[in-house]
Every structure is written in structure tokens, then in C-alpha cells.
Amino acid sequence: MLGYVEALNAVDEAMRAAIPSLEQLADVLGLVRSRRIISRSGHIGTYSYTVHGAGCRFVSDNGTEVDVDFDADGSEIFDLWRLRSYGLSLPEPLDVTDQDLRTAVRSLQPLLTEVRPGWFSVAS
Asked: Of the four listed, 19, 47, 48, 108, which is most buried by Cβ atoms within 10 Å?
């Protein structure tokens, strides 16, 4: 669980370093939708990315996957499915149950906040 948060922070730092105009990671959606800055999928720094619906999937060069959606205010949100995908993409995959993930999320409050049922964000 903390690994996902750390990986998400690493993605944020790498994307901001590669695209200095980014104020927040969610700005990637606007850059794609404008079609002038970056394409819907590509490679930036050590990550490949694919923009989807309300979010983006980032895959590091070592294969670790961080999929994140963005709330209306641009905050990064994720659900248990995204946490499980992250765990399964690790060099030594972790396959945990939804119940184990829920327990882990609850143990990390107030670091993590449930922004709507089943969706979480890192507290600011």
C-alpha cells in the first residue's frame, strides 16, 4: 500500500521534471485533450503512459504499473483494483485479497482518505 503511494509520488516527480508546465499530475489529461502537447499514450522519462477516461496508467521501465484516476479538483484517487494491479506488477508480485487491501487502507488512515465509497486519496 505504501509502495503504491511512493510509486505514485515518483511518477508525479518524473512527469513534472519532464514537463515543467505541469502544476499537478492531473494536468496530463488536459495536455492530452488539447492534442497539442502530448499524445494519448507515449513514453516520458522512465515511464510509458496511457491516458484513459478520468485517469492515466503509468508503467515504469521495470514494469511496475501505477494506474490513477483524477477527481474533479485534480486530486489523485485510486481504488482497490488499482492497488491490486500495482501489487501484481511488482518484480516480486503481491497478490492480496480485497479484504487484505481494505484492512491495509484502513490501517493507513489518516494518511489515506476515502473520498467516496471504495475510492481513496492521499491526505493533503
From this structure: 47
